[in-house]
Specification:
By secondary structure, this protein is mainly α. It contains 3 helices and 3 strands. Strands 1-2-3 form a 3-stranded antiparallel beta sheet. Bound molecules: zinc ion (ZN). Zinc ion (ZN) binds next to loops.
């Protein structure tokens, strides 16, 4: 047994593999259903897409509205100033610059990035992550060097 904690990506892929084995076993037992199942899945996707897409857009717009409302009320723990919408724009610019730097330094690589900086104070530079469940900004652990 390894002394390191198990990588969550490994756990996910194992679960997927297990589910894939069940599907493989089912399709081996019933080979004639493979084509119709794929066809049924495509039909379901086409039928549900007009419902799922607007729902996803509405939920995304709601999250952005919450974030903007929160940032206009949030007082920076470093300097006491209200963050404001510019703090979101500054974090967006810093994140874009960081991702561009990664691509420049590692051309052709694909990255799995989790963005943890959603606002940066314009006065003191304190960085915050937006907790979407509690609608508050929190100072993240320092990880990025952008
Ligand atoms: Zn500040």
């Amino acid at each position: 047994m390894s002394e390191f904690p198990q990588n969550p990506a490994t756990i996910t892929s194992r679960k997927r593999r297990r589910g894939g084995r069940k599907l493989d076993r089912f399709l081996r037992r019933h080979p004639a259903l493979g084509g119709p199942l794929i066809f049924l899945g495509l039909i379901l996707l086409v039928v549900l897409l007009p419902v799922l897409l607007p729902v996803a857009l509405v939920l995304h717009a709601r999250d952005l509205r919450r974030r903007r409302a929160s940032v206009e009320r949030f007082v920076c723990v470093g300097c006491g100033q209200v963050l404001g919408l510019e703090a979101l724009a500054r974090a967006d610019a810093a994140w874009a610059e960081y991702v561009e730097k990664l691509h420049r330094e590692h051309p052709g690589c694909r990255f799995r990035l989790v963005r943890e900086v959603d606002a940066i104070c314009l006065q003191c530079g304190t960085r915050y992550h937006f907790d979407e469940k509690k609608w508050i900004f929190r100072a993240p652990e320092p990880k990025y060097d952008f």
